[in-house]
Amino acid sequence: MMADPGDLYVNLATGEVEYDDGPTVRIIKDSIFIHIAVSGPSSAENKLLLIAVAKLEIVTCRSVLVGSSSPSVTWQLRHGTSRAAAGDDVLDGNATTTSTTTPETDETLLNPKIEAGENLWLVTTAIGGSVDEFGLTVLARWRK
Which of 28, 73, 84, 130 is the most buried (most CB within 10 A)? Predict the structure, then answer.
């Protein structure tokens, strides 16, 4: 299979999840995918994605929209022990998704390591155009 940098795929010959990071293709073992679709998102969403039962590390995020009139969603992933606190940003700066066709990859990570017992949540900070749905898939792997 020919992959482009940033692609996640299942190698049908081996059944392993692989990630093409440009110069190399890495096999992602002990990985989990976390997905959320937010219908009619606002500029102030605050959605719990998971409560970690073990240590995790975020590898990459992919997002796409359904919408019209130049849709966009500005968002961030946060983690921490308390949802009442601001939490630590996972991404190095907020991400803005504008594509309604091809998923966009965000992998400039600031604080990707999540400890057992921490919450991981999605926040949105701005919406542009008409957004019917925002979809986000996060690839994480278990860590020791």
Answer: 73
